[in-house]
Amino acid sequence: MKRFHHGLIAGSFAPLHRGHEVLIQTALQECERLSIFVFRNPDWDPAPTPVREAWLRRLFPEAFVLAVRPENLLRWRGAPSPTGMPELQSQLPREIPEKSAGPSAYARFLGGLFLWAHGRPMDALYSRAPAPPAFLEALSSYFHATTPTSPSIPVERSIVGPLTGIQSEALRADLHGGRAQCAPFVYGHFVKRVCILGAEGSGKTSLAAAMAERLGTRWAPEYAREYSRASAGPRGKLDFPLIARTQVLREEALAGEANRILFCDTGPLTSLLFARKYASAPGSDLEELAARPYDLTVLCVPDFPLVQDGTRPDELAQFEQHRAHLDELDKRRSPYHLAQGPLAKRIEDLTTLLKKRGWIPD
Fold it and tell me: CATH 2.60.120.320: does it fit domain 4-172?
């Protein structure tokens, strides 16, 4: 039997970092059940509450994770109590306290939310620093008043150590400098994705690799080339949805290893255009993948002699591919940067654009 029956950790997790992980792992070891409440008022735009909820669920599937947002509170008020105890519906808070709210407001918020969700007080409250005495007194008083027959008053468990001392505010100010303090998939959320599109032989791979080397980051190679060489079949037989899905999965895996920016050699949109040309029907899943948003789209212009590798089309077909990309981007009203001229010029032009956007230091 573990030390506590039901513990609670509450916070913004903006962002989720190694200190939070140590705290949650400790609580899981000590508690039969663990609830994690994630909220922030105002919310954090770079990673809103649903994103942070997904991080917590991915790392700690055994915990009960509750994302508290104003719209959720409104929806829960109109729904039956999760405990089947209608008398506890009145304990559901009406709003999320702001950061400047006093200890009593936070005690009512956490205490009421926990009672509404579980029908009893928590046994332990975990934090990365000792809670203010006024807050603990207010929380104890709240539970005495609302559940006078329950002897369970939470024990404060402040887990203090080198990792739990990570300051979220400092990390928010320099996410890229502090990326080692976050799980790779958490840091990957803040990495800019630059998708480099274009016809075959238009210099996409050369530009993606050169930009990654210049900026000390990663790039996602084109999976379609690897797949088509392995399949060695006619293009009409290629599994374009599989190509697009695998490309996206590889991008997401590499984002956590990148430094500020991930350069993607092609994207699902190219798979869609090829499917339209060579397959009977693209399918809704491929259409959905092709709508995947990128932070910047770069279209390489085939303005130099085609280098034939034995798999590429002739220059007329290459121009048709380029025209198809242009037409599709314009149809979707997707802004894009044209990469033109020799490779050195393309690198300088794109580097200048990234600096103007503030994505890389001057």
Answer: no
- For domain 191-356, give the fold: Rossmann fold (3.40.50)
Confirm whether 4-172 and 191-356 share one CATH topology: yes
- If the chain, 362 residues long, is cut into consecutive pieces of 10 residues, what is the mean pLDDT of each piece? 92 96 95 97 97 98 98 94 89 92 91 93 89 86 72 73 81 95 97 96 95 98 88 68 95 97 97 86 87 97 75 75 95 96 97 97 88
pTM for the predicted model, two decimal places = 0.91
Delimit the domains of the chain by residue range: 4-172, 191-356
**With helix as H, strand as E and coil as C, how does the chain read?**
CCCEEEEEEEECCCCCCHHHHHHHHHHHHHEEEEEEEECCCCCCCCCCHHHHHHHHHHHCCCCEEEECCHHHHHHHHCCCCCCCCHHHHHHCCCCCCCCCCCHHHHHHHHHHHHHHHHCCCCCEEEECCCCCHHHHHHHHHHHHHHCCCCCCCCEEEECCCCCCCCCHHHHHHCCCCCHHHCCHHHHHCCCEEEEEEECCCCCHHHHHHHHHHHHCCEEECCHHHHHHHHHCCCHHHCCHHHHHHHHHHHHHHHHCCCECEEEEECCHHHHHHHHHHHCCCCCHHHHHHHCCCCCEEEEECCCCCCCCCCCCCCHHHHHHHHHHHHHHHHHCCCCCEEECCCHHHHHHHHHHHHHHCCCCCC
